[in-house]
Amino acid sequence: MTKFLVTGFEPFGQSNINPSEQVVQRLAATQFEGFAVATAVLPVHRHYGPKALRTAVQQTNPDAIVCLGEAGGRQAISIERVAVNLLDYRIADNDGERVQDEPIEPDGPAAYFTTLPVRQLMQAVQAAGIPAELSLSAGTFLCNQVTYDLLHFLAQQQQNIPAGFVHLPFLPQQAAALPRNYPSMALATMETAVSTILHTLNTHLQAN
Ligand code: PCA
After folding, report:
1. Of 28, 31, 84, 198, which sits most exposed with the smallest number of CB within 10 A?
2. How far is the centre of ligand 1, averaged over its atoms, from the C-alpha of 189 (Å)?
């Protein structure tokens, strides 16, 4: 049986909730048919974020990894294609550290493509009636950093498993608390989108 690792992030910045954490909590409480889902919630911390993800990978030994995070302002389920070797935090992490213009891995490649079948996943989410898009950049904050670190780690271990990142919009209650209007998506819709991604990935893994 396929085993997925799905991660989210704790709240950060001005918000005390993070849709990715909430989706992960819901998945953790769900019994899926045909695959198992291990979950972890990562700290928004320069060192402990990537470290917690590596630990989760080592502890769960998954067949594929889908990391989730919040991208306030995005209008759709946003499937990332690339992680770049750059730390340029637009705000401080939860420990108050704001890194600028530094590489993640000084000797690492400039970027990694994620290894998820991104277009297939986007089309599956759209077919489920949920807006989805491909995105060229996860930014230069923690979401990009953990993705780069994960892909670098898997490459070094020669662990050839699909891994990548999906950004989620704000929840309606986050958007409603902001001084101007931002797009948002209901938690149940995001949860359906992520389970659609897992079902599609499971079929993909069985076919390959
Ligand atoms: N989003 C941030 C970090 C944690 C999260 O959920 C990002 O996009 O980098």
Report:
1. 31
2. 19
